[in-house]
Design brief:
171 residues, single chain
Length: 171
């Protein structure tokens, strides 16, 4: 009897169970459906997100490079502006210096001109005064000489006496 039992138990062990096969088939179908309808769209969404993130990172890197280039250009422009400002300042100082030198030269020339004119005016006034004195001294000398000599002096003698008197006065 033990043999019979053994066979029944073996028969059950060896017997083919269709439920198990159906469950395995069902599992494979579910895995395929899940793979097709769940994993594939999820992977596509993840791929799109990854692509968008990569694009955003790339865009941010480009924006950073562009900002760095703009900053570099700005700094270069600032340096050039400072250089131009220094050049303008140096030019203005040079022009001011030249202008002041020119004004000093003009003022010196005007002062020399005014001095020369004053000297000429003084010399002219001196000549006038000498001529006036010459005339007055000549008249006085004629009167004195006329009284001393009691005679009339000729015009030629008169001029000679005046010239002698003036030369004595100058010395």
């Amino acid at each position: 009897m033990s043999n019979v039992l053994f066979l029944t138990e073996n028969q059950e062990l060896v017997s083919f169970n269709w439920t198990f096969v159906a469950q395995i088939c069902n599992l494979f179908i579910q895995v395929l459906l899940i793979k097709k309808f769940l994993f594939k769209p999820v992977r596509e969404i993840l791929a799109k997100r990854q692509a968008k993130a990569d694009a955003d990172i790339k865009e941010a890197a480009e924006a950073k490079e562009e900002a760095a280039a703009i900053k570099s250009e700005y700094e270069q422009n600032m340096l050039e502006a400072k250089e131009r400002a220094n050049e303008i300042l140096a030019t203005a100082q040079k022009n001011a210096s030249e202008k002041s030198e020119q004004m000093i030269k003009e003022a010196t020339a005007q002062a020399a001109s005014i001095r020369q004119k004053a000297e000429n005016d003084i010399a002219q006034e001196r000549r006038k005064a000498v001529n006036e004195l010459k005339g007055e001294i000549g008249s006085m000398a004629m009167e004195i000489a006329g009284k001393v000599i009691e005679r009339e002096i000729s015009e030629k003698d008169h001029e000679k006496l005046i010239d002698e008197f003036i030369s004595n006065v100058k010395a």
